[in-house]
Amino acid sequence: MALRLAGTPIGPNDTAIAGHAIAACAILVTNNVREFERVPGLVLEDWVR
């Protein structure tokens, strides 16, 4: 909801993925960093770079 109110929403599937990673205290490995870096509290790792 906060991302939508800020005008930077992400898709519903990405929201579920990010929420699960945060709840599990996990690092999210993705090459879609641009989308997920907007999620506060989400730790990302880009193995493509």
TrEMBL record:
<dbReference type="InterPro" id="IPR029060">
    <property type="entry name" value="PIN-like_dom_sf"/>
</dbReference>
<protein>
    <submittedName>
        <fullName>Uncharacterized protein</fullName>
    </submittedName>
</protein>
